[in-house]
Structures are given as structure tokens and as C-alpha cells.
User: Fold these one by one.
Assistant:
Number 1:
Amino acid sequence: MSADSATIGKVNEEAVNAAVKQLTSPWFRFFVTYDPIPALEKVTCPILALDGSKDLQVPAQQNLAGLERAFKASGNKNATAKLLPGLNHLFQKAETGAPLEYAKIEETINPEALKVIGDWIEGVTR
């Protein structure tokens, strides 16, 4: 095995060990099992929930449907859930939505997302 191969093998082993440590941590187990719906059903203040259609970290359709059910159950008339077409998890215009794409996108946040947020804030503060 060459020095380069040994280095790559060590880096890969370190990456695997770091991933296993993260995925088995108490915080991660809590994160993947936490159900926010009971808490959301108690929220009475205005809420804006946004999902990008190309978000690969949070399935937009499933997430928005659950949020809308929670908002309805809460009786909160000032809760909005909205899908932002073509945007990723960071609300950037994206080709694939893959996290590896994030750093390649020059846009920090899509102007349409900012408009939706600004319009919503203006609407609830009138």
C-alpha cells in the first residue's frame, strides 16, 4: 500500500468513526425520534413554515402536510405553510437539492423566499 493509499484509508476510517459517533449520540437519537406535532398544536402565535421543493433533508410534501394538520388541530388561524418551488433546504435556487450542491450555489437565499418572508411579516404586523 502506498503512502497516499494509507492516508486515504486513515481519513476514510476517521470519517466513518466520526459519522458513527454522531449517528449514535443521544442528541441524534432524540432528533430523529422527536415529534414536533404535539408542541405545534399548542402554538397560538403567528407561524410561517416554509419548505423548498428540492429539499432533500426534509421531505417537503410530508412535512407541510403534517404542519397543516397541526395548525388545524391548534385552531391557529394565523399559521401558514408554504412550498417554495425549486429551492433547497437553504432556500437557494437549486438544480438537484443535494447538500453537496450548497457550497456551489452563489445565492445565499433566494429573493422569492425573502419576499414571501417579508410579505408574511408585513401581513401579521399590520
Number 2:
Amino acid sequence: MKTYYATDAFDKHVSDYEAWYEAHPEAYASELNAIRAHFERLPENIRGIEIGLGTGRFSVPLGIREGVEPSAPMAARAIERGVEVVDARAEQLPYADMQFDFVLFVTICHLQSLKYAFREAYRVLKPKGLLIIGFLPKDAPVAHGYQERRRFSTFYQEAVFYSPEEIAKLLSESGFRSLEFNQVLFGELESITEPQQPRPGHGEGSFVVVSGEKK
């Protein structure tokens, strides 16, 4: 099994990573809005994790208390924010079967084996648990811009972007059903001056969230 997570760039450039969120608060809030909408599919009193949680920028506002992050400097920042972080990778999660009500990914472009990552998520989810994935569709303006400038990018030189159709196919093959999509980030990042509310489906926004239920 070949796996990949580009930790070097994240290890060395934590401040640059954090600076993006400070520079784009409306886009960041929009992404959170899109993810929160999928939490409506979940019952109350739930336990979930984020895989590749970075500095905790999504875990903390979403109330996620634990997760996985292989970059030690990024994990250190998340720990400062109150998140319990395990040093592990998406393809080999250090959790027993059927532990969680949901699993969140917002870093799939930095993984090479989505098949194994989704398989592991399926394994640790309880029956009817939810896998939630936020991603940048490869043909949308933001991801397209990163791909065009990847030679000069700190974080996206080795990133792999996917279409919603590719993600849906992989999720179905991994055993997930009842897929639901929504989207935000309409227009260029610089034109977003207030938080956006998600719209159903995909094809317009540069940030898409899909959730699927474990059979």
C-alpha cells in the first residue's frame, strides 16, 4: 500500500497555513457553514474525529475534541487549542472498529490512497455513522488556480484534486450510501466579503462537502 501525506511543507510553514485563515475569514466561515449543514444528519450526543486536522481550524469551531494529524508542529498548535491529537495517518487509524458517529476529512488532496483512507473511516464508524468530506473540486476556480501555480505553492505542489463524481464513486465502492452534497465559495476568493450559505449539490462552488452513511 502506497500512502502519502506531505508533512514537510506543513511542518515548516505553520504560520503561513494559519495566515490563510486570517486573510480569508469570510471564505473560512463559509466552509464551516457548509460542513455544519451536514451535522444536521447526525443525532445528538455524538462522538467524532477529524482526520488530518492540521492546527484545529475546523475541529475547534465544530466541537470536535479529537483526531489525527501526522505533522507534529501542526498538531502542537491544535493541542494548544484544546484538541486531543494522535500521531497517525488516514490509511492506518489507531482506533478499534465502530468507535465513532462521524469522521471528518478536509485534507483529501494531500492523500494518495483515498481508497484505503475511506476504508479505514468505514471501519471505525458505527453502523449508520457518517463520513463527511470537505474538498476543492479540481475543475472549480480555487483548485484550478492552485494547480496552475503549483510550482510556486507552499502546500499544493504535490496535491491531487478530485471531481465530485470521482469522490462519489470511491465512497460508493467503500460501502457508503445516501450521499448528500452541498457547496460554497461562489466566485473568486477575493470577491467573498461576507460568509456564504451553502447551496445543495455541486458544480458552482469551489468548496464542496459530501456526506455518506455507513451501511
